[in-house]
Amino acid sequence: MYPEWDAGGGDDKESGSPRAGAGVIWVLAFAVIGVMTAAIFFGVDADPQRTGDAPTPATTDAGADDRPVLLVFGAGSFAIGEADPPGDAVAAAEGRGFEAHSLAYPLADLRAAVRGARGVALRYRAAGRPVYAYGESGGGTLAALLAVHGEVDAAATYSQVTDMVRFARGAGDGGEYEALIDADEQLLASISPGRFECEAPVLALAPEDDPSSPPTLRWDAREPQVHGRRVAGGHLGDPGDPAVYETNLSSALQWLQRQSAAQQPAT
Known about the structure:
Mean pLDDT: 79
Oligomer: single chain
Helix content: 25-40%
CATH topology: Rossmann fold
CATH superfamily: Alpha/Beta hydrolase fold, catalytic domain
Radius of gyration: 17 Å
Distance between the termini: 36 Å
Number of strands: 6
Largest sheet: 6 strands, parallel
């Protein structure tokens, strides 16, 4: 179950940024692998100051466009983030027949990030639009979570963080990462896709050399709606070979395209 969003934003934080200990640095380094690889090879700019709810696309009207909607969520461990995922994922999705939107979800506020993702998905669904999600790393957590709760028709993820509690504990920083994203263990557990059954299908790309892959593959082993797929590379590809990322992105979008075609009513 999602946390109660009207219960407030958690404990008040002192003004200023928390001091980054070794664990926070480890977590951010994990995020930077994806974000900086994007900046180097695809010209993507990181935005470490993004706050507030995710923007709402200009129109959600069912009659405005008859294409299926694809919500695209970039990487960043909810602490740093890219304006758009690398490799021009939105353009690639548009080429496969989607009305694609890259959503710059809020940073340093886990509740707001999930609330923003849900809000956009539910607005499209309320307008009668078919909605799909694609996400990378922390953005994959958001995409998978929408599928867990049936708020999209299907989701594809790449290097997703499947268990946020395990991820935060891996930092070994005495709670500094949780403070950085304004979360506690209860909240982290409530938005960890791998702790739940899944209402909608998920394709979860699990790179061979990615520490985020084992929890994802365990989720695949016990959850029928999750389709784990081992792919080449490390976290979000290979810094030495951009083609690895592009190949895996294409694989995810192709799967979503097939899901969309199979789920649309015959005309």
